[in-house]
């Protein structure tokens, strides 16, 4: 696994995409085909089945390192990654036999067939025969995915460099439900038919936030639609089966059983890009309703009636078994509209209607209504645009509404972990109520590193009390908190829960007594909740 | 028996001798463990430090009333007998031993137990109470052995030089920078330094410490005049326009925090070398064991965790609040190595 560890280190050490791509390309040129395939699988979120619980791994590592469990936990909370913590606390390995990546993955697979004592022996033996980086990677294989700063884009770029195949084609080949157990380097990469696998989705086309309307040219060149706040999904109907993919390439087919009727009303060889929305009475329900469905692999009947979903269809990618992504958007949408028109009204699919506008001013007004109809803003798509893959500028833009904001007082701070191990980055915020402060949200993101450093130094000097890792600080600093939505919540002291709260800016100009009040917050709940 | 040392809001205080150790507020008489700015601060009536620490203190604090003492030399101050012993942290750094009526307490200051080839190696001092730092007081911190570290840095530099890149290494001006200088292979190429580091080099050279030849990187020194150079810079200079003149470059940090992948990635440097002038987990535990002390005070770092660990090991362990910083990556103050 030495070559895989070298690849990992080269990627991990650099922030430059050229260096990362070169490291991957070098590896793809020299590594064993089976190792290469596993590497692609791991870097695109496909990992061997978990055979040992994280709890057991912690226990065994603490035992080998001679540490009490609590100290292992403290260490873990600083490091922020279980595999890394384990690799760091274990005593140095006594052996070093260089086996291949595939060898270690097969070892892990074999472990699942063994009794617990033998599994433990197998893992301890592995830990004791791998140097720190390889030990980290091996443990990572046991515990979770490989989020290491390599995007699918870099992998396809490196593969394109080594195989000479075009990037979009490679991107398509890497999509879907393949694993190194069902595919080989030969069938996946070398073979030339990306539709060999009927469930394979197309890469999603993603938009950037619009900077300015000025560069868009005449309004007549553009199609505008609502940007719905649901789950982006790709519905595939092929070979009499349907598959529903998320943008993160999760197969969600079974989570939304009501969409299975779509295969009865839409022709075979249809692929639709759309948004899954909780939907009733021809109106989207709040994201909160949909949230109850997320993460549920089987759905109880009650929930199916409370939060039924539809597919809000944006685009048509495949028609009559033909990839039509190169056809202009206007044409694709026409075909999509006629397909949907042929379905009975109760079919859980709707066309995402175009928003009428003649001038950009009209469109800005339409955007202002977004929150009232439960949308996040608008999508602007050039009428003659093809369906590209990945996030691209130019033809598609999202034009989101501004977030809701409130000025709040920081009252607690907690150190982050991982990348932020020695900084106070996680804060609790309060609004005023008379002379009291009522906590209502936490936020972790939105400040610059320099601001986090400044606050960290301040927290260290101004801690009033410690509650474990949490520091109480005097109410001094006011921050503008931005959020996307607000809901009543009996579980919170303030009575509200925010959607996606983050720090918009540090209001150094505002004293604490100018921060917003609980009444302000309740008014927002009444208006937008 | 009265405590030999007490902890006040001005610093660590010895009532029997009426002096403070590493105070952070102005006091009449200050005993200083080493020259870093969180330990040796301005504004004290008079100072006592080792002969090896004195030049840096004069350089940094200017006109001060400073008395010096050699390692191992006894000095009676009031009813206290004090002596200074090598702490291995930076050249001249000391642990301060204070004895009152047969009761011995030792203030470690900052220390490390492994020899760095430059500082006087750490000497364990027997005592009843030991006041220790624990900047890296978690079992995840284990330093790279010096020989492997040297090889890593030399390889990195040589590879960069061969590829036509400058190597820019971020390290604290006092201690870390010179320690790295003493270990790299000067045959690979020229060594350039940031002003703060060159000034400290000068002070140390003047007191007889041998360092390889370095060139102060004035504005006219660039990648063209010194191809394949190793540039030693303060961490705060990295990522600023100061580094631009060195052309295509690979950047690296040398710090104990580089043991953590997350921190390495946040610094967005090309490399992170795991090296610190503080003790790692094993170093702290070995040092404490070697003192024979039963009473331990943890001053800065992961204090509450370390206290609990020590308590479970059977020590009478306490946390005391001080104004020392230990090794901070996020504070640009160059003196906090």
Give a short synopsis of this structure.
With 529 residues, chain A is an alpha+beta fold. Chain A contains 19 helices and 22 strands. The model of chain A has no long low-confidence stretch (mean pLDDT 90).
Topology:
The complex is a heterodimer of chains A (529) and B (337).
Chain A (H helix, E strand, L loop, with lengths): L1 H12 L3 H14 L2 H11 L10 H12 L3 H11 L2 H8 L11 H11 L4 H12 L4 H12 L8 H12 L3 H7 L11 H6 L14 E2 L1 E2 L12 E7 L2 E8 L2 E6 L15 H4 L4 E11 L2 E2 L2 H5 L9 H6 L2 E11 L2 E2 L5 H13 L7 E3 L8 H9 L6 E8 L7 E2 L4 E5 L3 E12 L8 E10 L2 E8 L5 H13 L3 E3 L2 E3 L5 E6 L1 E4 L7 E4 L2 E5 L11 H11 L1
Parallel strand pairs in A: 1-12, 2-13, 8-10
Antiparallel strand pairs in A: 3-11, 4-5, 4-6, 6-7, 6-8, 8-9, 11-13, 14-15, 14-18, 14-19, 15-16, 17-18, 19-22, 20-21
Chain B lengths: L5 E2 L4 E3 L4 E3 L7 E3 L14 E5 L3 H8 L4 E4 L5 E3 L2 E7 L7 E7 L2 E5 L21 E6 L11 H17 L3 E5 L5 H8 L7 E3 L1 H12 L8 E2 L13 E4 L15 E6 L6 H7 L3 E3 L7 H11 L3 E7 L1 H10 L3 E4 L18
Parallel strand pairs in B: 3-4, 4-5, 5-6, 10-11, 11-18, 12-15, 12-16, 13-14, 13-15, 16-17, 18-19
Antiparallel strand pairs in B: 1-2, 2-3, 7-8, 8-9, 9-10
* N- to C-terminal distance of chain B: 36 Å
Instruction: From the 3D structure, determine the CATH topology of the largest domain in chain A.
Output: D-amino Acid Aminotransferase, Chain A, domain 1
The tally of structural domains of chain B comes to 2
* CATH domain class of the largest domain in chain A: Alpha Beta
Low-confidence stretches of chain B: 330-337
What order do the SSEs of chain B take from the amino end to the carboxyl end, as H and E?
EEEEEHEEEEEEHEHEHEEEHEHEHE
Question: In percent, how much strand structure appears in the residues of chain B?
Answer: 15-25%
Rounded to an integer, what's the Rg of chain A over CA atoms?
26 Å
CATH superfamily of the largest domain in chain A: DNA ligase/mRNA capping enzyme
Count of helix runs of chain A: 19
Helix content of chain A: 25-40%
Class of the largest domain in chain B in CATH?
A: Alpha Beta
Tally of DSSP β-strands of chain B: 19
**Whole-number tally of structural domains of chain A:** 3
Query: What characteristic shape of chain B results from the CA principal axes?
Result: globular
